[in-house]
Amino acid sequence: NRGENGLWEMFGKPEPGLSALCARALLGSENAEQRAAALPVLDFLLGLQQKDGSIHAGHLPVYVTSVAIMALSAGQRASDTEAIARASNFLHAVQADAGEGYSEDDRFFGGIGYGGDLRPDLSNLQYALQALRAYGASEDDHANQRALIFLERSQNRSE
Question: Can you give the pTM of this predicted structure?
């Protein structure tokens, strides 16, 4: 499903999330030709960056921003550092915390949802945390610490 422009497509149009996932896979290769095939995707993703730092084409901002960070980080291009930092800031900003009016006692505290809505889920959270890790966030990063609170509440543990 890769188009002539080097991007992966759905229904004949470039799909940024899928393209980012594919680029990330190619960038993990030791083959220089395969790594080079990912470069058009990285440039495409940079062109999708929004004012708030997110990277998407109008839908699924958390998922697409997350996989974009992973691809751009794997690309190891110094010119992408600022864009990756802005995208990372977006993921931090959408986490349910005091900034969105949540206290630590709220069941959604520490979660991350699709972006824009107030219902976090485990899938978006996992992608966002994976992206922040790719960016270089430490285990002590406040996003990780808040996520642990959300994750612990998500378990069905009687104790």
Answer: 0.93
